[in-house]
Design goal:
Length: 60
């Protein structure tokens, strides 16, 4: 029998790291894959959505 070469990996749209698809969350803006490490770091938006967002006001 031939073995199937299945891959369960996706590229994080915030950092570019390739991780298992089941170990991540969707972007809050568009739903693309954000890896677990970025999620732990507080990243909720992919690079494209973060670039489109208006700049946040400086902290007082």
């Amino acid at each position: 029998m031939s073995e199937t070469q299945e891959r369960d990996a996706m590229t994080c749209r915030a950092c570019g790291r390739e991780e298992r698809a089941s170990e991540g969350y969707p972007c809050a803006g568009c739903g693309t894959f954000i890896c677990l490490i970025c999620t732990f770091r507080g990243v909720t938006h992919c690079a494209a959505c973060a670039a489109k967002a208006p700049p946040s006001p400086p902290a007082a």
